[in-house]
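Section 4.2 – Deliverable D4.2 (structural model, holo form)

The reporting period included a commitment to supply a predicted holo structure for the target in complex with histidyl-adenosine monophosphate. Inputs used:
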Amino acid sequence: MSCPVRARVESELTQEIQPVRGMNDVLPTEIGAWQTIEGAARALLAAYGYQEIRIPVLERTELFKRAIGEYTDVVEKEMYTFVDLGGDSLTLRPEATAGVMRALISNGMLRGQRHKLWCMGPMFRHEKPQKGRYRQFHQINVEAVGMPGPDVDVELVALTARLWRRLGIEGLRLEVNSLGSPEARHAYREKLVEYFRARYERLDADSRRRLEGNPLRILDSKNPDLRELIDGAPVLTDHLDPQSREHFQVLCASLDGLGIPFRVNPRLVRGLDYYSRTVFEWITDALGAQDAVCSGGRYDGLIAQLGGEATPGIGFAMGVERLVALLTQAGRVQPSPAADVYIVVSGSRATASGVALAERLRDELPSRRFELNLGGGNFKAQFRRADRSGAAIALILGDDELERGVASLKPLRREAGQSESPLPDLAAAIEAALAGPAGQP
Ligand code: HAM
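Output (structure tokens):
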């Protein structure tokens, strides 16, 4: 007699397990765009003198609270935080800047030194998933530490502009702003609080809460009912300290000089609290609501705030998923390269020697791609696979050929007959077949 409880437990055990909401698989059909972007960024960053650093995905929660700010959306609402078995509160990194600065401090790498660093990898934010916004997403993150600028600010923007050109991504717009020195920002903050306090009844609940903790974030509100109120608020760029003003003027003049178009957006305040002076964002109209593909700015006070020796810094991060979407929309994704040679094996002896033959050819022609038919299959099925693999030629090894010490070559992408080659001469015969009659396989 069957037991209903056991049957239910068994059916639960075999039920399909769902992926975590907002966390995506990147499939082999999509990976080309990822590799194009990562490869281009890697090469360009190396060319500008940036070195890779790898940091943990988990950090102490306190790091993000202190770096990003207690009253930010990221810290208030979006962090994946848990207590580990040792009782420590840990958080999956929502961004990389805090971790990179922590690494510089932990490894004693400051002491007046300069660092140009990049890292890439997954970040985690418990946001409402939608097109272009995920809970696990990937950033290419770049940081320049120890240089007060504005030359480095300009060069970082130029680097990103060059990356878009290399990738063939068009239509990105650059917005810049200056948040001033921490002191000037403080003075501005007072003015802002005064302005909003006088209009308290028009604020929404989020903004009321932020009024005391972080009034600048009210400027960043997405609530359309607050637009008019925000438009009337004092403007930060009118309250810059003289040094920040000059820094910003040099930045804008240098961008003009380089022919990089930009717009000064006085409402660009960014969602993380560590910024001062320069902030910038590359935005697009092609991805709906999630319009920022690359954002960053200067964080001159952050390292000291984390207990390190006061050192200026600036950086940015690109959202890889958003760049992938743009590259795909623009039809700029290269298909992954196909095999050069697909090896068809038929008969038990030939099948047994297939791996050894393929290994020998890989030794002899290391830059060629060989795909060996694995898992059996009749001749017809193997040729179908050879065709689907995109390989330029099929190499056919049957028991009969093996007996005679030869293998056959058959071009798959042009009309041409099959030819035979002695096994020891196969490498040269493959190269000749790949070159084709007029140098075309
Ligand atoms: P962020 O503006 O929070 O800055 O993120 C940078 C970029 O990551 C955004 O422009 C966007 O392209 C992408 N991004 C952010 N959230 C998501 C999401 N939920 N789904 C998909 N993509 C997303 C930072 O993270 C700073 N740490 C950047 C920085 C580095 N500033 C200085 N150094």
